[in-house]
Inverse folding.
């Protein structure tokens, strides 16, 4: 299995390093290194150099798995940290990559925040965790719940306020005042200063949507990657029942990509595929769409789902480019929010590559708007439009006048790239998948923990071609 | 437990381990199970003697799933490192493990699924049962579990005969595979590499899902590249319009490499789908009109291939291509354009002018372009034998023969020259001969490799698309090897002399390597190392194993050993002398090196690097050479791996090596790869399968060569010697007064060689005929046989 595990900082410093197969052997003049254990000691450095200056197959970014001199390196990036494993044998790469993600999550569960700083401060605890998670290169358990009974170090809490938290829950931190911001970054084992833990449970429905519009405004492809994320701070691990829409159905019948359109508007939510966390029992799922589970401590995905059912895209983009005389052109970008006006999207950014020989761009926003920023990035010839807030039902327009340094070869539309958009819409989900109720098995009548059910929609790849 | 990995600890470990394996607490048992694997790594015999393996097997029936999972993992690890059968999955074990599967942690499920994938079901019924038990795993949230389950199902599917069941399974596998693409980009990458293999075998699984492989604008580049590859594989007449629209969109994006690949993808679709070719070409022409330099160049390269695929169909577009002639600055694009001009010289009115414009800069062009220019000019001359081209050809031939030092170019020019001056008609037949139609086989794996990779789905080899033995160095041979270094078997001694000749010959470029190097042979320096230890060849092969046990382990490794050919004489290495050659030991390839320091200073920090070569030979680990004091020498065996950095073009034997140390400049020298080093131990063929294979290969794959100077004096000694080099004797028959021997051999990637040797014992002259699926290897093979027979 794996030989080494290490965590590198952005600059390539070793923060955590564990060698599971280090073997003291007799010094001999001739050493044959074929033993699986002997991944050389300098592997972290070799790895970092390779990743930093990757240039192979015409690509500039290292793939997550590669081989240097017989050593296989796996890595994932989490909040700027590189989690790396090495091995010499033919293992399952998805297993190792999944493990690396999982280690990051377990450490985050324990430390509250995952950052270089928190890792360094808690290295004793981190090593203790690693020894339980991996033995001789074989993964033992990555469940925070199970690990609890073997881990005795207490985490040293790092000030979370000034650090970017990890994971999908981070999006709730932006702008919305309704959430208790610090709760989501607190450690699952650390006790609150008051001595008593607050009983609460978070259920987040996070949907990442990918939409591609054709130049005439039709939807070419649309897809939702959703996940129901849960983070429980309940003592005693009571059983929980989670009810979803009753009209939920799974699997497109027939296999043809087109016949689901007929169901559009009927209100039924049809998932293409879904999978569940191992703690979920599906006894009554087929009957009434409820999930029963005893949530382990820590953050985990209860259910992942994917759907290609047609949905109403939250934003409609309209882009017009016209040549306006010699060496000049005008771009008109219109964006309309198609969701109700009581909902506000935030951190909306639109980007559009412009023709290569654009030298200057001047922008004209609607009169009187605030919280909008425009920019022309000269280096990569890109137009950027940031909108801090975007209230539902409203339409915003941007006019940009471009100046070119030379005559256009062909149609200007061919040379300006597609408009891509990123946004976050809290308390809104496009799939209409809902948590109807969240029931916690009661221990006593006075037991009434806080329950948070939150929805959010994020852009994954939201592109309009022109 | 057992983390202190030294020999001395083992005796203290055994008794507690025995108790722990039977402990009441499952946590203790599961830790003890892994500890057995650790102990096996330190001292394998001890584990077998103390019966830990049996205890481990008992743990498979444990009632705690975590213990079962660890026991399976430990057994699999031990099996991996041992040559004997230790962990065989029987039907009862299978049932037990399948039951445990449902209860295990996600990691345990992967261990069990991977172990079970080695199980061969006895019939279709059993296979169906297994599949039924494994299918629910496809719903798991952990991608590793899903992929391992897919692997299991694909394997059992081979046995299932009912088409209904197979179709049903394919349907069930599609959604989970697609869902993998919603995971983190790192996992997506692994999934895509695996899907790439799966669609090559069973394209139906994902035929309807092509949309999910459309690139998202925020995908990392490595994911985008893989998606393109799969889109090409899934493109069909039905979805080609949609796919082309996507490719066109990608071709206008910002990332240069991605754009190039997208353009190339359009070309490959044109070659793959005849009915869509026209649409593809019109898209390419649209792209050329945008006049983005690298798009145009890439488009021209693929259009050349389209012309090869559909000759005389789309020439009308040549005019458009010619417009962008002067923007070309990359060798491959230039060469492609020149090829097009030469090929269609009769239809391009100003072909001579176009070529002439290129000719001005002939001496500065890269070899690729020079070669194309030469051929194109000859074609032009043959098609339009007028005055202009005649002058051009004079210039070109002069340039290519007198003023160049590129042997390929020179040789080709001489051939054309001679052809043209002796028989222009023959030249026409040769140069303007009809070319075979190409098909889109780039990135297509050959079926034996694909089989092997499919068996390895959800492992690293499915990500690299290389068989496991190409990048994994087996641990099981390692235990013996440390001792073997001191007593290399006789093979080395035998080859050393011929090798030094060969090494000298190898230094000259491959195109002229067929010329016998009589001079080189004489000037070959005599081996400098001390005379070989008096170990008779065969004896050491036979008693090699016993030898190892007798030899005290701490014997200095430097002194005795067979002489190696000197590749870097002390004269040219500023006092450092390096002798080296490739050897095969215990089924593995090593580079045996001897360093001698004749300088006045201590040399240290040795490193080694191999250039691209036909077999992709590369070091499997760092070079281990201790600091060398003045006058000292050191010998080392460097384990090698295959198929790492393979050079393209026809196979040749050149191995370029660079060695550096901290005190001196980098030394470069050439070595020669002898094919018999690659002959694998499993090359033996049964008589019947030999006959079948011989018949199944077409006659065009038979190559013949005579060695007039070689005499076989004793059949037995020759057979033994060949067998020692993994060339296995199969049968013998008498034909007139001649003896005919049949042998088989095999090189990695499962390429077999079937050999027929005809000779009269005691008389000089041996005729060797071989049949192989890879006849381009034949010259290399003959060289190897010659070396073996001469010994």
């Amino acid at each position: 299995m794996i030989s080494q595990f290490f965590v590198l900082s952005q600059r390539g410093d070793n923060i955590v390093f564990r060698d599971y197969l280090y073997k003291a052997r007799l010094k001999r003049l001739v050493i044959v290194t074929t033993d699986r254990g002997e991944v050389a000691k300098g592997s972290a450095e070799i790895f970092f150099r390779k990743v930093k200056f990757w240039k192979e197959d015409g690509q500039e970014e290292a793939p997550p798995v590669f081989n240097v001199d017989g050593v296989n390196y796996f890595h994932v990036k989490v909040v700027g940290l590189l989690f790396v494993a090495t091995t010499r044998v033919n293992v399952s790469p998805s297993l190792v990559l999944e493990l690396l993600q999982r280690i990051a999550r377990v450490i985050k569960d324990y430390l509250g925040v995952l950052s270089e700083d928190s890792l360094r401060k808690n290295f004793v605890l981190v090593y203790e965790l690693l020894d339980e998670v991996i033995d001789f290169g074989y993964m033992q358990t990555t469940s925070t719940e199970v690990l609890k009974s073997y881990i005795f170090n207490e985490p040293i809490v790092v000030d979370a306020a000034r650090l970017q938290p990890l994971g999908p829950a981070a999006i709730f931190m932006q702008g919305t005042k309704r959430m208790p911001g610090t709760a989501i970054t607190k450690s699952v084992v650390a006790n609150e200063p008051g001595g008593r833990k607050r009983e609460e449970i978070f259920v987040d429905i996070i949907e990442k949507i990918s939409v591609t519009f054709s130049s005439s405004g039709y939807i070419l492809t649309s897809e939702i990657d959703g996940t129901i994320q849960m983070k429980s701070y309940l003592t005693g691990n009571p059983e929980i029942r989670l009810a979803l829409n009753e009209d939920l159905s799974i699997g497109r019948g027939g296999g043809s990509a087109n016949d689901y359109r007929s169901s559009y508007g009927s209100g039924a939510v049809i998932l293409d595929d879904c999978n569940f966390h191992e703690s979920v029992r599906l006894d009554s799922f087929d009957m009434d769409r409820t999930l029963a589970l005893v949530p382990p401590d820590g953050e985990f995905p209860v259910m992942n789902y994917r759907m290609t059912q047609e949905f109403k895209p939250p934003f409609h983009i309209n882009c017009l480019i016209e040549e306006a005389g010699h060496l000049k052109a005008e771009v008109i970008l219109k964006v309309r929010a198609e969701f109700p006006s009581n909902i506000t999207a935030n951190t909306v950014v639109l980007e559009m590559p412009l023709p290569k020989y654009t030298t200057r761009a001047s922008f004209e926003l609607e009169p009187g708007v605030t919280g909008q920023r425009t920019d022309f990035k000269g280096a990569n010839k890109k137009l950027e439009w940031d909108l801090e807030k975007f209230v539902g039902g409203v339409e915003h327009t941007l006019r940009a006048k471009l100046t070119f340094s030379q005559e256009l070869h062909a149609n200007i539309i061919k040379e300006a790239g597609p408009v891509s958009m990123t946004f976050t819409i809290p308390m809104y989900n496009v799939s209409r998948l809902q948590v109807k109720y969240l029931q916690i098995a009661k221990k006593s009548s006075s037991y009434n923990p806080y329950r948070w059910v939150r929805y959010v929609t994020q852009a994954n790849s939201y592109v309009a071609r022109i | 437990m057992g983390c202190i990995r030294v020999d001395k600890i083992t005796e203290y470990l055994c008794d507690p381990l025995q108790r722990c394996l039977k402990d009441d607490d499952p946590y203790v048992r599961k830790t003890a199970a892994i500890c057995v694997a650790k102990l096996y790594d330190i001292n394998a015999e001890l584990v077998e003697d103390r019966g830990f393996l049996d205890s481990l097997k008992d743990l498979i029936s444990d009632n705690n799933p975590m213990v079962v999972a660890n026991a399976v993992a430990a057994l699999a690890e031990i099996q991996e490192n041992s040559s004997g059968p230790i962990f065989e999955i029987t039907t009862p074990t299978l049932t037990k493990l399948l039951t445990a599967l449902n209860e295990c942690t996600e990691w345990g499920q992967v261990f069990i699924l991977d172990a079970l994938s080695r199980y061969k079901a006895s019939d279709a019924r059993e296979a169906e049962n297994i599949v039924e038990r494994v299918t629910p795993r496809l719903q798991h949230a952990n991608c590793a579990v899903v992929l391992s389950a897919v692997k299991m199902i694909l394997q059992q599917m081979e046995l299932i005969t009912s088409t209904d069941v197979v179709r049903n399974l394919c349907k069930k596998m599609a959604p989970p595979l697609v869902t993998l693409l919603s995971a983190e980009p790192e996992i997506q990458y692994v999934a895509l590499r695996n899907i790439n293999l799966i669609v090559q075998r069973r394209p139906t699984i994902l035929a309807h899902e092509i949309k999910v492989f459309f690139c998202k604008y925020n995908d990392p580049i490595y994911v985008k590249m893989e998606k393109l590859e799969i889109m090409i594989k899934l493109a069909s007449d039905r979805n080609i319009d949609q796919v082309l629209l996507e490719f066109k969109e990608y071709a206008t994006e910002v990332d240069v490499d991605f754009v190039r690949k997208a353009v190339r993808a359009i070309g490959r679709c044109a070659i793959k789908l005849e009915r869509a070719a026209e649409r593809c070409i019109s898209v390419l022409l649209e792209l050329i009109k945008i006049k983005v330099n690298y798009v145009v160049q890439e488009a021209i390269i693929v259009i050349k291939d389209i012309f090869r695929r559909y000759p005389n169909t789309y020439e009308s577009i040549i005019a458009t291509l010619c417009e962008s002639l002067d923007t070309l600055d990359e060798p491959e694009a230039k060469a492609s354009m020149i090829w097009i001009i030469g090929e269609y010289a009769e239809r391009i009115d100003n072909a001579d002018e176009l070529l002439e414009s290129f000719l001005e800069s002939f001496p500065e062009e890269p070899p690729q372009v020079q070669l194309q220019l030469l051929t194109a000019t000859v074609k032009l001359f043959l098609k339009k034998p007028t005055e202009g081209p005649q002058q051009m050809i004079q210039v070109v031939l002069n340039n290519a023969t007198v003023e160049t030092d590129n042997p390929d170019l020179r040789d080709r020019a001489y051939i054309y020259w001679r052809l043209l001056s002796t028989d222009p008609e023959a030249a026409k037949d040769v140069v303007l001969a009809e070319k075979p139609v190409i098909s889109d086989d780039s990135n297509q794996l050959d079926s034996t490799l694909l089989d092997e990779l499919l068996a390895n789905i959800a492992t690293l080899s499915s990500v690299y698309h290389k068989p496991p033995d190409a990048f994994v160095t087996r641990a099981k041979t390692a235990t013996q090897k440390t001792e073997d270094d001191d007593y290399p078997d006789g093979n080395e001694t035998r080859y050393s002399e011929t090798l030094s000749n060969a090494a000298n010959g190898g230094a000259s470029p491959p195109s002229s390597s067929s010329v016998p190097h009589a001079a080189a042979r004489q000037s070959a320096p005599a081996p400098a190392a001390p005379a070989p230890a008096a170990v008779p060849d065969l004896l050491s092969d036979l008693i090699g194993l016993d030898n190892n046990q007798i030899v005290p382990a701490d014997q200095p490794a430097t002194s005795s050993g067979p002489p190696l050919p000197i590749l870097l004489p002390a004269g040219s290495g500023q006092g450092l002398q390096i002798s080296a050659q490739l050897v095969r030991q215990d089924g593995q390839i090593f580079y045996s090196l001897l360093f001698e320091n004749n300088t006045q200073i201590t040399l240290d920090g040795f490193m080694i690097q191999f250039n691209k070569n036909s077999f992709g030979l590369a070091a499997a680990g760092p070079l281990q050479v201790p600091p060398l004091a003045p006058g000292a020498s050191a010998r080392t065996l460097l384990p090698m791996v295959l198929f790492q950095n393979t050079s393209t073009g026809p196979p040749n034997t050149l191995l370029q090596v660079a060695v550096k140390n901290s005190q001196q400049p980098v030394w470069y020298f050439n070595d020669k790869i002898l094919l018999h080093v690659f002959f694998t131990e499993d090359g033996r063929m049964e008589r019947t399968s030999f006959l079948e294979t011989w018949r199944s290969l077409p006659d065009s794959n038979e190559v013949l060569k005579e060695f007039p100077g070689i005499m076989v004096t004793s059949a037995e000694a020759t057979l033994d010697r060949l067998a020692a080099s993994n060339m296995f004797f199969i049968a013998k028959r008498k034909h007139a007064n001649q003896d005919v021997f049949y042998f088989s051999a095999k090189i990695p990637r499962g390429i077999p060689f079937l050999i027929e040797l005809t000779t009269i014992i005691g008389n000089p002259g041996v005729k060797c005929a071989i049949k192989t699926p890879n006849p381009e290897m034949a010259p290399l093979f003959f060289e190897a046989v010659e070396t073996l027979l001469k010994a």
About this structure: Residues 6 and 42 of chain B are 7 Å apart (CA to CA). Chain B touches chain A through 107 residues (CB under 8 Å). Residues 26-42 of chain B form the longest helix (17 residues). Residues 478-513+556-673 of chain B form a domain with the Immunoglobulin-like fold (CATH 2.60.40.1150).
